[in-house]
């Protein structure tokens, strides 16, 4: 256990906090335990929902990778990494929003999640930055084919090279490599089943056994929040000389229980039948039985895994190494007081620890967990997140706008963090308008003593690289420090530039997505890993033209030119004479005038006769 | 303009009358129309000049400029030589094979005599001039030497014997020294024996090349018709062989429908069986080898093996083999990087479905000669490995059990590369033969690509021909010429390199990206888009011209009339 704070906090804090810490320490523990393949599922009921964390990890030694003998490490991915000289890769497919108010702190401290859409970053080897950048492009293009995603759209305008927001996770050999960090995002990308299929293909048990047998695209991408992650990093194997690559695949999701349990053939939500309605017995009119004042359904209803995931959990994947020091493949952390029942035909092993029950599932036998209903959970409060972030667009019109990030520190200790913002090139921020406002979120009495820190005290460091039109994204990195129990408001103005005709995406009137801001919370102790929080993505509306524009432009200019030509030509060619010198009979004009005069004369004659 | 209207009855302001001025009359007089004053000849002429010069500038400068600036770019292609190559008239591929007669134990004059006699005998045997053997003595041995004939005089041999070395390009002929021809002999049994042996060694290749040349356009009908069996063999080889590439990736995959076996001693097996073969093949292409294990990989659901009670075995129908590969679920994506991937699949059936065999094509075959493997043309090879339960229990397939599958894979690898079956004994000779046939087929394919490109660009006048495509065509033509020249001097290695270059460049020219996009913007669209400009400009121009022309004609008539 490298995570030293686990024992200090475990006894006093809420069980789920301890759980996160144990989970994190077990994650770290993997760096010492070197089984070729392991998998793990962690289940935790949240109010009206279920948090499921799948984790698959495989390792391969450098020698086997060089000889290209693959066992559980996927051949396709390894060949791509080798081809692109990539030492460490992090790839995220995320959809939905993590609801901090009701779910609390993010799973794995946010280290295995990405911003909405696709986010990836990698450390690429290269003598110079341009060589490494070419390899990065090769990497995104190859991964695009592998994961059926539009990763190939990560070009220079979506790539940044963050300085402080990311740290390599893997074992690094100093001096031997010239590594460059690249970071790219695709906030517009819709994550869907076609991204899950290649993900499943990489698993040795391929969803036919083990915890991966629960994974179903229909449920995952219907979840309130899900994040699919692939992390490849260099590790040391056993002794000091042998090295290898470790790949971690993880899927974290929050399933809405009621939504997931709808029958497949009738997925339309309907009101509860009368006898299943929960009524407030305190209301006087409920005594007649035909009326009901409905109360909310219990936050922790009764459900089984098969009901929620729509699939059977088919026991342990037999390819897990038994010598692994993490023999549990499924862990359940019921909410306080909730009981859990196991249904399995095979023999399973159970280990209990603080707040959670872990099981070694049987091989070749189904395994199911039933969570019993818990009505009296009024005292349930989720663990506080380290930071809460909210980012919005202010201003109006199609030319100017402002960006406003509200960051809340709910804890009793100051927080140091790095704020990374990647803006598309057509958003031009004015850094001189960057304002910070710190206000206390303490109660009225204590607020008296609060002194708002100045901008210099909040912003410790700043790195800003302005964007270049059509070439580079604007990249802003701030190192900030927030006092305890405060709210920080960060604002700056920006200008939207007008795009060229071909630069608009399909459905341009929907707007342009701006990648989520990444916040890396720096650890207070050097041993601890950093945790991450991401804001939601933004949709900005830029002036979009009428797309029949080129044709209109041609027609308009043609008409103007023709007009000019016509008048000049007529002036040159026509003979100009006095109005009375046009000769008798004149042209069409004269004839029409004559006709009109004749008709008038007739009408006039009639009037006079009357 | 109209000088004849001078006497029109219009009421001019004639009455500046006596004392009283009738204002009404004045207004009427002003309103009254009158003929325009006669135009001076000077202004008529200048107007005519203006109309004419406008018309000339627009039609001679404006229109061509507009057409030129909006037209698609078409570089000049050497159509003449492209069609020339396509028709097969640019190069007659010849294959002069240099064979060295090495006779360290025979006097020089006798060996020279033998050489001449053998050459004469060879020429008599050979009916196909494009592919012929040239015997030279050991002093002329060079890089281009195809085969070395070692003359080994032994007293023991009664009649001469020939042995083809399996790992070298060498033919050893043992003979009694008495068989050496005398200086005055006009024929020798030894010489004709050597000629026969050499002829037979290259007979297969010669027939192949003769067939390839005969089936290419612009060739003269082959003098000797080939047997249908041989044609079927050639066709078979052609359909099975992969497209030639300088690099091949060999991917060995262990597939099993359950979790076991998930381990195989493939490193050792590949090291002992595949590596030596790959080393021998390295002169043709380079090879990379990778292996992977895929448990829980079940064959396609459309394949249903049948259980045979009598033999207590499962059988796969031959017709179902094509559907066996579960491309949707098995991760058999091609390897990254240049080159083709050849897949070798080792399928270990589930214990309840073991043993699994393929139904033999003739029912008489007994159980001992069960079919295990089949070749997937231009893709790879598959092998069903039925392991006894004892071997399965360890979860690891031993290197010994892998021997049979890997041997089957290596035979299939040679077939997939298009290696000719003859001469069966010598792998280097088969490889050299493959190189020559490859050169010829690459020459043919790049020439026909050039022809197709020429026809395409000429049949679609609105397609653009970008500069890179034209450069590729030029490169192809020069490479083709060089390959042809290299063939003439018997430098087959160089010829293959150049033919490969020609093929790559020809494909690059044909599949140039910027050519395709323009097809959908024909000239009608261009005119339609610019019609708002062309119409309003053209109308006054043409009307003015017509008016002037009419007036001119009327003027001429009037002049004649006078």
TrEMBL record, chain A:
InterPro entries: PIG-T. GO terms for biological process: attachment of GPI anchor to protein. Keywords: Membrane, Signal, Transmembrane, Transmembrane helix. It holds the Pfam family Gpi16. GO terms for cellular component: GPI-anchor transamidase complex. The lineage of its organism: Eukaryota, Viridiplantae, Streptophyta, Embryophyta, Tracheophyta. This is Uncharacterized protein. The keyword Ribosomal protein does not apply. Residues 1-33 form the signal peptide. The chain crosses the membrane at residues 553-573.
From TrEMBL, chain B:
GO terms for cellular component: GPI-anchor transamidase complex. Pathway: Glycolipid biosynthesis; glycosylphosphatidylinositol-anchor biosynthesis. Its main location: endoplasmic reticulum. The chain crosses the membrane at residues 49-67. It comes from the Eukaryota. InterPro entries: PtdIno-glycan_biosynth_class_S. It is found in: Endoplasmic reticulum membrane. It is a multi-pass membrane protein. Keywords: Endoplasmic reticulum, Glycoprotein, GPI-anchor biosynthesis, Membrane, Transmembrane, Transmembrane helix. GO terms for biological process: attachment of GPI anchor to protein; GPI anchor biosynthetic process. Residues 1-22 are annotated as: Disordered. Belongs to the PIGS family. PANTHER family: GPI TRANSAMIDASE COMPONENT PIG-S. This is GPI transamidase component PIG-S. It comes from Carpinus fangiana.
């Amino acid at each position: 256990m490298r995570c030293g704070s686990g024992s200090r906090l475990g006894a006093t804090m809420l069980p789920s906090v301890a759980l996160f810490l144990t989970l994190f320490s077990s994650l770290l523990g993997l760096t010492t335990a070197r089984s070729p393949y392991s998998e793990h599922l962690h289940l935790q009921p949240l109010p009206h929902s279920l948090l499921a964390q799948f984790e698959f990890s495989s390792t391969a030694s450098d020698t086997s990778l060089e000889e290209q003998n693959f066992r559980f490490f996927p051949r396709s991915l390894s060949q791509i990494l080798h081809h692109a000289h990539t030492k460490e890769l992090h790839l995220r497919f995320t959809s939905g929003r993590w609801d901090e108010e009701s779910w609390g702190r993010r799973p794995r401290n946010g280290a295995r999640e990405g911003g909405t859409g696709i986010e990836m970053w990698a450390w690429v080897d290269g003598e110079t930055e341009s060589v490494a950048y070419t390899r990065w492009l090769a990497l995104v293009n190859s991964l695009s084919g592998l994961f059926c995603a539009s990763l190939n759209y990560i070009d220079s305008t979506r790539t940044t090279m963050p300085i402080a927001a990311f740290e390599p996770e893997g074992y690094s050999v100093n001096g031997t490599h010239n590594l460059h960090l690249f970071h790219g995002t695709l906030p517009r990308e819709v994550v869907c089943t076609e991204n899950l299929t290649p993900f499943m293909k990489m698993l040795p048990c391929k969803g036919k056994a083990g915890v991966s047998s629960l994974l179903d695209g229909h449920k995952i991408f219907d979840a309130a929040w899900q994040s699919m992650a692939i992390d490849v990093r260099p590790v040391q194997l056993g002794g000091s000389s042998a090295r290898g690559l470790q790949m971690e695949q993880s899927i974290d999701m929050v399933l809405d229980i009621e939504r997931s349990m709808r029958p497949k053939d009738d997925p339309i939500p309907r009101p509860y039948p009368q006898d299943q309605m929960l009524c407030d017995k305190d209301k006087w009119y409920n005594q007649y039985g035909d009326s009901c004042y409905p109360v909310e359904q219990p936050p922790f209803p009764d459900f089984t895994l098969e009901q929620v995931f729509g699939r059977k959990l088919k026991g342990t994947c037999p390819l897990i190494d038994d010598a692994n020091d993490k023999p549990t493949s499924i862990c359940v952390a019921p909410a306080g007081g909730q009981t859990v029942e196991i249904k399995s035909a095979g023999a399973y092993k159970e280990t209990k620890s603080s707040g959670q029950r872990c099981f070694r599932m049987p091989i070749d036998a189904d395994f199911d967990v039933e969570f019993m209903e818990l009505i009296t959970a009024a005292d349930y409060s989720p663990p506080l997140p380290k930071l809460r972030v909210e980012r919005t667009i202010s201003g109006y019109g199609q030319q100017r706008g402002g960006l406003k990030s509200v960051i809340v520190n709910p804890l009793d200790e100051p927080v140091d963090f790095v704020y990374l913002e990647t803006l598309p090139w057509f958003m031009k921020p004015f850094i001189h308008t960057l304002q910070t406002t710190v206000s206390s979120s303490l109660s009225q009495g204590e607020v008296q003593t609060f002194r708002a820190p100045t901008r210099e005290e909040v912003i410790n460091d700043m790195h800003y690289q302005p964007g270049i039109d059509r070439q580079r994204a604007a990249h802003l990195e701030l190192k900030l420090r927030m006092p305890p129990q405060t709210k920080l408001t960060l604002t700056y103005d920006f200008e939207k530039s007008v795009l060229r005709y071909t630069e608009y995406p399909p459905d341009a009137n929907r707007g342009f997505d701006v990648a989520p801001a990444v916040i890396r919370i720096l650890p207070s102790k050097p041993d601890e890993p950093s945790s991450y929080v991401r804001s939601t993505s933004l949709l900005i509306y830029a002036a979009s033209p009428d797309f029949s524009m080129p044709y209109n432009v041609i027609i308009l200019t043609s008409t103007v030119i023709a007009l000019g030509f016509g008048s000049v030509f007529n002036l040159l060619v026509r003979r100009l004479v006095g109005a009375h010198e046009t000769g008798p009979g004149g042209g069409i004009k004269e004839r029409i005038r004559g006709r009109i005069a004749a008709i008038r004369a007739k009408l006039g004659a009639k009037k006079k006769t009357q | 303009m109209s000088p004849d209207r001078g006497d029109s009855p219009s009421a001019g302001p004639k009455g500046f009358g006596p004392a009283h001025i009738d204002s009404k009359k004045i207004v009427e007089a002003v309103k009254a129309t009158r003929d325009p004053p006669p135009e001076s000849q000077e202004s008529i002429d200048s107007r005519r000049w203006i109309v004419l010069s406008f018309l000339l500038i627009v039609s001679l400068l404006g229109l061509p400029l507009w057409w030129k600036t909006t037209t698609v770019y078409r570089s000049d292609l050497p159509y003449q030589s492209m069609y020339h190559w396509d028709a097969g008239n640019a190069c007659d591929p010849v294959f002069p094979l240099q064979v060295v007669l090495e006779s360290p134990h025979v006097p020089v004059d006798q060996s020279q005599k033998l050489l001449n006699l053998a050459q004469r005998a060879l020429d008599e045997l050979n009916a196909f001039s494009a592919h012929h053997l040239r015997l030279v003595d050991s002093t002329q041995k060079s890089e281009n030497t195809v085969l070395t004939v070692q003359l080994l005089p032994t007293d023991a041999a009664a009649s001469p014997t020939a042995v083809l070395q399996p790992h070298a390009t060498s033919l050893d002929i043992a003979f009694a020294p008495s068989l050496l021809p005398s200086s005055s002999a006009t024929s020798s049994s030894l010489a004709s024996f050597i000629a026969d042996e050499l002829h037979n060694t290259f007979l297969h290749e010669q027939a192949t090349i003769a067939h390839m040349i005969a089936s290419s356009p612009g060739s003269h009908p082959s003098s000797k018709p080939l047997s249908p069996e041989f044609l079927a063999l050639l066709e078979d080889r052609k359909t099975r062989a992969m497209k030639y590439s300088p690099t091949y990736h060999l991917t060995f995959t262990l597939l099993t429908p359950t979790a076991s076996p998930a381990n195989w001693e493939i490193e050792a097996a590949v090291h002992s069986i595949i590596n030596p073969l790959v080393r021998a093949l390295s002169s043709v292409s380079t090879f990379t080898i990778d292996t992977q294990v895929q448990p829980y990989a079940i064959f396609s659901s459309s394949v249903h093996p049948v259980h045979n009670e009598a033999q207590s075995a499962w059988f796969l129908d031959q017709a179902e083999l094509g559907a066996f590969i579960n491309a949707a679920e098995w991760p058999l994506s091609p390897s990254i990087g240049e080159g083709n991937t050849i897949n070798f699949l080792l399928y270990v059936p589930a214990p309840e479905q073991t043993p699994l065999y393929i139904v033999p094509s003739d029912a008489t075959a007994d159980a001992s000669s069960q079919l295990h493997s089949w070749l997937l043309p231009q893709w790879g090879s598959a092998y069903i490995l039925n392991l006894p339960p004892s071997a399965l229990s360890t979860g690891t397939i031993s290197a010994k059990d892998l021997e049979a599958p890997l041997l089957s894979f290596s035979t299939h690898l040679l077939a997939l590369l298009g290696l000719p079956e003859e001469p069966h004994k010598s792998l280097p000779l088969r490889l050299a033969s493959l190189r020559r046939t490859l050169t010829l087929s690459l020459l043919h394919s790049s020439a026909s690509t050039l022809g197709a490109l020429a026809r395409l660009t000429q049949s679609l006048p609105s397609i653009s021909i970008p500069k890179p495509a034209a450069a590729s065509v030029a490169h192809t033509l020069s490479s083709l010429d060089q390959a042809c020249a290299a063939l003439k001097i018997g430098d087959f290695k160089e010829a293959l390199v150049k033919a490969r270059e020609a093929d790559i460049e020809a494909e690059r020219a044909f599949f140039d990206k910027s050519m395709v996009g323009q097809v959908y913007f024909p000239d009608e669209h261009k005119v339609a888009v610019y019609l708002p400009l062309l119409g309003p400009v053209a109308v006054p121009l043409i009307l003015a011209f017509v008016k002037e022309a009419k007036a001119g004609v009327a003027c001429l008539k009037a002049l004649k009339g006078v």
